[in-house]
Amino acid sequence: MNDTLSSKVRRKSVVVDTNALLIPGVFGVDIFDELERMGYIEIIIPAPVLRELDALRCRKGKTKRAAELGYRILLRYMSKGKVLIERDNADGGDTDSRILSIAKKRDAAVLTNDAELRRKLRQAGIATVYLRAKNRLETEY
C-alpha cells in the first residue's frame, strides 16, 4: 500500500470546527451520525471551539438557534462518550491555529466549511471533511 493510501485508511480521528457544529441547525444534517458513517471513531472538539459555540448561543435569530441545536447534539454525543474535548494548554493562537495544530498532532482530518481554513489544511496535507450539496459530509484528501 502506498503512503498516501495508507494515511487515508488510518485516518480515524476528526477535529470539528465551530461552523461545523452549526450544520445540524442550518441544514438538518446530523454531523455526528455522518462522521460515524464515514468511519471516524474519534471526534475531537478543541476548547476554543466550545468557547466560540457558547458565544454564538448568546446571539439572536438563526445563528442562536443553530448554535443551540449544535450544542444540544454535542452534549448528547458527549454523554455517550463519543466526543473528546481537547483541553490543551497552548498559549495564544487563534482557533484555526489550534485546530491545525491538533490535527497535525493527532494525524486527524478536520470538519469545516471555512474556505480559508480548508486552504491552510490542504497546504499542510491534512484531509478536510466538509458539507457537500447541503445534505451530506464528504472528505477531501
Please outline the helices and strands.
Blueprint: H1 3-10, E1 13-16, H2 18-21, H3 23-27, H4 31-37, E2 42-46, H5 47-56, H6 61-79, E3 83-86, H7 95-106, E4 109-111, H8 115-123, E5 128-132, E6 136-140
Parallel strand pairs: 1-2, 1-4, 2-3, 4-5
Antiparallel strand pairs: 5-6
Task: Give an account of the 3D structure.
The chain is an alpha/beta fold and 141 residues long. The chain has a single domain, classed as Rossmann fold (3-Layer(aba) Sandwich). The protein is built from eight helices and six strands.
DSSP, total strands: 6
For the sheet with most strands, the description reads:
6 strands, mixed
**Which sequence of strands runs across the widest sheet?**
3-2-1-4-5-6
Question: What structural category do the secondary elements indicate?
Answer: alpha/beta
Overall pLDDT score:
90
How many separate domains? 1
- Report low-confidence residues grouped into runs of 5 or more: 1-9
By CATH, the topology is: Rossmann fold
In the CATH scheme, the class would be Alpha Beta
**Global morphology:** globular
Per DSSP, the total helix count is 8
What is the chain-wise order of helices and strands?
HEHHHEHHEHEHEE
**How much helical structure, as a percent, in the residues?**
40-55%
Strand percentage lies at 15-25%
Distance between the termini: 16 Å
CATH superfamily: 5'-nuclease
